[in-house]
């Protein structure tokens, strides 16, 4: 007997969780003396009301797609990769070294090179905790947290002591060469005769993120490897029975996860800043957790969740300009989403399952009663 | 007349769809040792866990010394003078013996006086009952026999008048078991009431005053030990339910398919699980392995299935198989023609959250027929194959997109069987083929196994159901304590003889 | 390096180790009871803000202190609700709590004080002030001229806030509570084998909530100290990863109170010398990258976790919600 129809699990539970998060956020806004309805209007307008607004929303969403996919791939193998932040930081380093020290004739080649560099750096940063988990039993959550801090310090060191141009005070790399400039939406759409805001940072790496979604979808649901990852994630004992090696799955899934997190740097480092600065990731690695939970670890869900968080981040930024509500409101919403879709899942799920069970019983017994 | 120490009236308990106890009533007189015997899964442990407040009964009443006593939790049970030694000890591994004993029964908020009193008390208990343990030793450093003493001491320290022991000798050597029985005898002399849960007839005969027999969640009989015999108990325990007659011709064994010699397995904890097991299976025959579960059958299947290391030799069709675990796993075994229906389909055989079609490919997901290209699986082919297999094995509902956990036990098992049997293996390993399966499906599953045999395949059947072993096997081997106790031909043996072998009693003693 | 510089370094070590120690012991109680807590950071942050805000509004540091503890306790209750009552994922709950605190503190700070997510600077009775011990010298000039014993007494022993002394006392108190009381025995047992506790007739849920509560109180003190003792007021994200360093120290200490003290002093010392690059250079003769000092606690923890230097074995039932086996 099925407890609950699948659509309820996939759609209804996230929606209820989101609604709960939204109501609580609304109460928070009320509590600090602002009007939640007005705030919502400003956020929607600010994130979707113009091409410029969309340009920012999609820019943020691109970051979140990468980190959300990263968390999701690891989730499928029942690994909690909390190190997306560090892996994205390393990815940034990879992109910077690749753009600064290799001569690129054209941005398209540079993009390919940067994809490889960012993925490799991110993967490496995830591979060490994965190895320690698989071979030494070190808890992946703790090691990936530690690796976030180590990555931040490493970046700090590289920027201050190695990559900073002589004479500069700011801990940042020089600007990347023009040949590595990725076309933004305005430049991409101009040949098609479509005008797009020139100042907005959304760029071609959004398309790379979409490709990554398709890639992850195909990986998880169409390949043998993905099948093995999911099998291992659902039941380690069954995986052993079937001859699936736990070590291999942990290493491979975390490598892919780290590579995806690292590729976020294509967007924020190569596409937007065009140089590497301190704290370039701005917490996007952690937002990946919320995005993956919300999107139920499915690339399509992640795409939607990433767009939602893109709206939240851009809308939140505008909100903080137009009202006295600080941008940290977004953090609160993010926390509530993680709380309700992750830790308090049972609070929403159990009553809903009971409800569906009651409805089903009602349906079964009703015709009998009528006879 | 004195009131019974324990009286249970109409106890019922269900776990989800499984009815573990059905309307059970039982009376135990004070100062006696009462045995509860039954096969694995008969509901003995559940019943006693209810008495100890670990589980709550769905219905029924508990009387202690004639008083109606509700027992909602273990605290109430302890207060009512009940102590329980669980099959899996409830001890804190890195605590000392003394700390484990006082845990939950401390005198005051400060530990020191409690420990001091416990130390004194322990000394006198040790003298009284021959229960010597080093109070300062850590649990993880002492043997299981000692750990069991700690559990008994825990109960006595809490002034238990009623002591429940769940399969207490399962982990003990024969000498330790004898010592335990001496201790129990002394406790009885002191006026304590003891309930002993076991599946071993020898123990019942040796030590108990009265016996209750359980089968499939129901109480099937209460007898005085002095007025019964092992064969009678074995019969009650296994049940004389309608033998499911399986239509089968006499076997025509062919070439040797599986030859196992001197197989030994030691687990991570250093426990010797298989002790020099040797046997063989020929093409076109079913070798049934009978035995109470936990006597090495699971390890045997795991070794043959490729996911447990062992020493010894195994030959398949004349060529040796690697047992070191380095060059082999479940997939290489499958490639060599060994199919495996595992004992625990929910933990191993199926991924409960996977859909039926995903489970049909499980373990065989590398097979060429399921691939579209080097990278991609051919989902359409798998789904088509699933539809075919579901119809041939009459899986209901025949929906390849339904998740495994939403099928009934019998249909889950049919999915596993369809996957394994249709591979046309040289050797089929099959564990507990009908556990948790409804009658209709049992018949179907048995027919499939016999049909595979008639195609000339070798089959190794492991089951705790003696009926099943008797009606399916062409030869029967009985396992006890990691060893093969003997081989019998089904037409030359009976439930009684096998039951005794399963309990570790060899020919002469019976 | 002269003696006085060393003393100054150690003095800074003690001040910086104090919040780490309190948070580390907080984590110790929670994790010893089987509840993983990566939300130490968030609870400290919430307490830091609440303490500073209330102290600023009431002018009393003690009222602020209590309010800080209360805020931390609220988040603890949330963690308990998610991980004990609803048997949710303890790690995810911790992550959420960290974000919640990080966001809410700034939000409320901005709404109350409109100073860009800060509280006003605290002074006088609104913060914890150093306690001068009898006979101790207060002025730097006097200390410089005093003998070594007087320097030691005045610089290192005297002149800390009450919370620092409290934190030091918390170590033996925690040890005593854990190893010398009935409560401690049960708490340690529930983190190792909740079934043993359950069958002994003790409530697993009750014990775990108690542990999470203690964790909340200690995190609250740690946070309050940050904003009203170590510094004079709240600034956004002022915990700056201290909750995670405390977690690292906890692993380093292998979940034992006295070792937690040593680990936190070590990590505090690393933080202290990271601020004094000049001292390192003069002692070692070469420069050490300050970033290396910053990450040393994390690197050391990874090495410990990998089991290369003594294996850190967490409480056996840690991270798993208790469900009676079937």
Quick recap:
The complex is a heterotrimer of chains A (371), B (510) and C (326). Helices cover 33% and strands 24% of the residues of chain B. Chain B is built from 17 helices and 20 strands.
Features of this protein?
heterotrimer, B: 510 residues, Rossmann fold, 2 domains, 6-stranded mixed sheet, elongated, C: 326 residues, mainly alpha, 0% strand
Question: What order do the helices and strands come in, and which of them pair?
Answer:
The complex is a heterotrimer of chains A (371), B (510) and C (326).
Chain A: H1 6-31, H2 36-48, H3 51-76, H4 84-101, H5 107-136, H6 140-163, H7 185-189, H8 205-222, H9 224-234, H10 236-242, H11 246-273, H12 284-294, H13 299-322, H14 329-343, H15 345-370
Chain B: E1 6-15, E2 18-28, E3 33-38, H1 44-51, E4 59-64, E5 67-68, H2 74-79, E6 82-85, H3 97-102, H4 111-129, H5 144-157, E7 162-166, H6 174-189, E8 193-198, H7 201-207, E9 210-215, E10 218-224, H8 230-238, E11 256-266, E12 272-282, E13 286-290, H9 297-305, E14 311-316, E15 319-320, H10 330-335, E16 338-341, H11 345-349, H12 356-360, H13 379-392, H14 409-421, E17 427-431, H15 439-454, E18 458-462, H16 466-472, E19 475-480, E20 483-488, H17 495-502
Parallel strand pairs in B: 3-8, 3-9, 6-7, 7-8, 13-18, 13-19, 16-17, 17-18
Antiparallel strand pairs in B: 1-2, 1-4, 4-5, 9-10, 11-12, 11-14, 14-15, 19-20
Helix pairs in contact in B: 8-17, 14-15
Chain C: H1 3-32, H2 40-58, H3 61-85, H4 90-113, H5 140-145, H6 148-157, H7 162-180, H8 182-192, H9 194-199, H10 204-230, H11 242-252, H12 257-274, H13 277-284, H14 290-305
Strand content of chain C: under 5%
Instruction: Write down the overall mean pLDDT of chain C.
Output: 92
Largest interface: A-C, 48 and 49 residues
Strands of the widest sheet of chain B, in order across it, are 6-7-8-3-9-10
Beta-strand residue percentage of chain B: 15-25%
The share of residues in helices of chain B is: 25-40%
């Amino acid at each position: 007997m099925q407890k609950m129809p699948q659509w309820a699990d996939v759609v209804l539970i996230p929606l209820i969780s989101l609604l709960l998060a939204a109501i609580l956020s609304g109460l928070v806004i009320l509590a600090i003396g602002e009007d939640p309805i007005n705030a919502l209007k400003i956020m929607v307008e600010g994130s979707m009301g113009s091409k410029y607004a969309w340009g920012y929303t999609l820019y943020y969403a691109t970051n979140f797609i990468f980190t959300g996919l990263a968390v999701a791939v690891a989730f499928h193998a029942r690994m909690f990769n909390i190190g997306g932040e560090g892996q994205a930081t390393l990815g940034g380093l990879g992109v910077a070294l690749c753009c600064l020290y290799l001569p690129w004739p054209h941005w398209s080649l540079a993009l390919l090179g940067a994809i490889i560099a960012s993925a490799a750096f991110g993967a490496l940063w995830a591979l060490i905790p994965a190895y320690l988990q698989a071979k030494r039993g070190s808890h992946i959550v703790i090691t990936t947290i530690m690796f976030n801090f180590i990555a931040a310090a490493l970046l700090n060191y590289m920027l201050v002591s190695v990559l900073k141009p002589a004479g500069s005070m700011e801990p940042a790399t020089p600007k990347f060469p023009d040949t590595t400039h990725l076309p933004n939406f305005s430049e991409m759409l101009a040949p098609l005769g479509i005008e797009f805001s020139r100042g907005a940072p959304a760029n071609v790496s959004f398309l790379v993120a979409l490709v990554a979604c398709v890639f992850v979808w195909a990986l998880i649901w169409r390949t043998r490897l993905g099948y093995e990852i999911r099998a291992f994630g659902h039941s380690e004992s069954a995986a052993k029975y079937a001859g699936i090696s736990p070590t291999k799955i942990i290493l491979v899934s975390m490598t892919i996860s780290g590579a995806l997190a690292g590729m976020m740097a294509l967007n924020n480092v190569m596409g937007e800043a065009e140089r590497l600065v301190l704290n370039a990731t701005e917490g996007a690695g952690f937002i990946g957790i919320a995005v993956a939970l919300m999107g139920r670890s499915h690339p399509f869900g992640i795409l939607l969740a990433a767009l939602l968080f893109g709206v939240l981040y851009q809308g939140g930024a505008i909100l903080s300009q137009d009202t006295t509500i600080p941008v940290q409101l977004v953090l609160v919403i993010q926390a509530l989403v993680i709380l309700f879709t992750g830790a308090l899942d049972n609070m929403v799920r159990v009553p809903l399952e009971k409800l569906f069970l009651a409805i089903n019983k009602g349906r079964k017994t009703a015709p009998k009663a009528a006879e | 007349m004195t009131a019974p120490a324990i009286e249970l009236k109409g106890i019922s308990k269900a776990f989800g769809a499984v009815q573990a106890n059905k309307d059970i009533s039982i009376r135990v007189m004070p100062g006696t040792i009462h045995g509860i015997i039954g096969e694995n899964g008969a509901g003995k442990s559940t019943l006693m866990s209810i008495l100890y407040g670990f589980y709550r009964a769905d219905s029924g009443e508990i009387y202690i010394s004639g008083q109606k006593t509700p027992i909602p939790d273990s605290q109430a049970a302890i207060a009512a003078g009940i102590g329980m030694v669980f099959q899996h000890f409830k001890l804190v591994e890195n605590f000392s013996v003394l700390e484990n004993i006082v845990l939950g029964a401390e005198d005051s908020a400060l530990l020191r006086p409690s420990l001091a009193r416990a130390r004194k008390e322990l000394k006198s208990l040790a003298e009284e009952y021959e229960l010597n343990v080093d109070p300062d030793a850590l649990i993880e450093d002492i043997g299981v026999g000692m750990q069991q003493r700690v559990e008994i001491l825990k109960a006595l320290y809490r002034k238990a008048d009623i002591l429940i022991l769940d399969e207490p000798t399962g982990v003990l050597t024969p000498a330790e078991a004898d010592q335990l029985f001496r201790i129990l005898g002394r406790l009885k002399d002191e006026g304590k009431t003891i309930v002993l849960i076991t599946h071993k007839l020898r123990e019942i005969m040796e030590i108990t005053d009265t016996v209750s027999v359980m089968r499939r969640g129901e109480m099937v009989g209460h007898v005085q030990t002095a007025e019964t015999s092992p064969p009678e108990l074995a019969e009650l325990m296994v049940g004389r339910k309608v033998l499911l007659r399986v239509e089968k011709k006499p076997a025509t064994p062919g070439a040797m398919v599986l030859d196992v010699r001197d197989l030994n397995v030691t687990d991570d904890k250093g426990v010797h699980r298989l002790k020099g097991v040797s046997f063989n299976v020929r093409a076109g025959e079913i070798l049934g392995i009978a035995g109470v579960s936990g006597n090495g059958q699971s390890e045997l299947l795991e070794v043959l299935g490729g996911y447990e290391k062992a020493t010894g030799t195994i030959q398949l069709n004349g060529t040796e198989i690697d047992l070191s675990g380095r060059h082999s796993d479940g997939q290489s075994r499958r490639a060599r023609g060994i199919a495996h229906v595992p004992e625990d389909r929910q933990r191993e055989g199926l991924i409960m959250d996977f859909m039926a079609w995903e489970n049909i490919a499980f373990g065989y997901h590398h097979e060429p027929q399921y691939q579209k290209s080097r990278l991609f699986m051919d989902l359409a082919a798998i789904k088509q194959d699933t539809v075919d297999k579901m119809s041939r094995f009459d899986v209901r509902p025949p929906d390849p997109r339904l998740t495994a956990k939403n099928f009934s036990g019998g249909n889950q098992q049919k999915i596993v069987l369809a996957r394994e049997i249709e591979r046309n293996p040289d050797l089929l390993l099959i564990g507990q083929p009908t556990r948790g399966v409804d009658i209709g499906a049992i018949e179907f599953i048995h027919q499939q196994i016999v049909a595979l045999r008639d195609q000339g395949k070798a089959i190794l059947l492991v089951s705790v159901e003696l009926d099943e072993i008797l009606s399916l096997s062409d030869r029967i081997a009985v396992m006890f304590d990691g060893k093969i106790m003997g081989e019998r031909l089904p037409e030359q043996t009976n439930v009684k003889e096998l039951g005794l072998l399963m309990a570790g009693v060899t020919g002469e003693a019976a | 390096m002269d003696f006085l510089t060393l003393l100054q370094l150690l003095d800074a070590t003690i001040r910086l180790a104090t919040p780490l120690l309190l948070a580390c012991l907080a984590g110790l109680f929670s994790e010893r009871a089987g509840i993983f807590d990566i939300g130490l950071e968030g609870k400290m942050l919430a307490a830091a803000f609440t303490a500073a805000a209330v102290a600023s509004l009431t002018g009393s540091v003690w009222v602020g202190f209590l309010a800080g503890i209360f805020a931390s306790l609220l988040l603890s209750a949330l963690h308990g609700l998610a991980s004990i009552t609803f048997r949710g994922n303890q790690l995810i709950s911790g992550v959420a709590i960290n974000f919640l605190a990080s966001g809410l503190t700034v939000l409320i700070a901005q709404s109350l004080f409109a100073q860009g997510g800060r509280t006003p600077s605290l002074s006088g009775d609104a913060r914890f002030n150093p306690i001068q011990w009898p006979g101790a010298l207060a002025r730097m000039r006097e200390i410089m001229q005093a003998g070594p014993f007087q320097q030691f007494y005045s610089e290192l022993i005297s002149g800390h806030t009450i919370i620092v002394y409290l934190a030091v006392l918390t170590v033996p108190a925690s040890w005593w509570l854990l190893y010398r009381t009935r409560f401690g025995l049960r708490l340690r047992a529930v983190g190792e084998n909740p079934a043993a506790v359950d069958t002994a007739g003790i409530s697993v849920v009750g014990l775990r909530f108690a542990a999470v509560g203690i964790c909340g109180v200690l995190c609250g003190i740690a946070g309050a100290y940050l904003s009203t003792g170590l510094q004079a007021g709240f600034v956004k994200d002022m915990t700056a990863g201290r909750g995670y360093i405390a977690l690292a120290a906890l692993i380093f200490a292998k979940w034992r109170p006295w070792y937690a003290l040593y680990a936190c002093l070590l990590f505090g010392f690393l933080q202290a010398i990271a601020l004094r690059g000049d001292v390192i250079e003069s002692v070692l003769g070469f420069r050490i990258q300050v970033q290396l000092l910053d990450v040393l606690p994390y690197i050391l923890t990874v090495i410990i976790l990998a089991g290369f230097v003594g294996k850190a074995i967490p409480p056996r039932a840690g991270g798993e919600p208790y469900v009676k086996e079937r």
